[in-house]
Write the structure tokens for this entry.
Amino acid sequence: MKQYVIICALALASCAGNSHKNTPADSVNGDTAGTDTALATSLNTPAQNMEYCFMRTEGTNNQDTTKVHLVINAGKVSGEMNWMPKEKDSRKGTLLGTMKGNDIKAVWSFMQEGMTDTLAVAFKLSAQQLEQKPSVYNKANGREQLNTKAGYTLVYKLDNCK
């Protein structure tokens, strides 16, 4: 009986000691690093067929708010975008566009001061935030337009969809 107990104890000790060792083969194959990379990638990659809500505040005391609600389904994007400055007329409307990778190109159709207008918008989506290219005023036609040369400088934080 003593031999049986000793053999079981040794077997358990050897199994517990080898439950997960980083062997040279693991390092060469990148098994542990691959797991970390996959986890980091999954945190930054937005899920398809999903609904996202984001919010951005700016201005004195962060009183101006922009909210973006996106519904992504098989590369198609729809949703709403509402720009609500504290002491100006707001712009509220819908977004329709497409998504390739993390890049979203859409048209924002909105109402402001009783008039309907449209504006091309470009976003970069991650699982935790939304970034947008700013727009610029075109003096030649008197309209606002997407600044295609600018970076994604407007950053929205993930928000609860309410």
About this structure: Strands lie at 50-58, 64-73, 76-84, 91-100, 103-112, 115-125, 129-132, 135-138, 143-146, 154-158. The helical segments are 2-17, 24-29, 31-44. The radius of gyration is 26 Å.
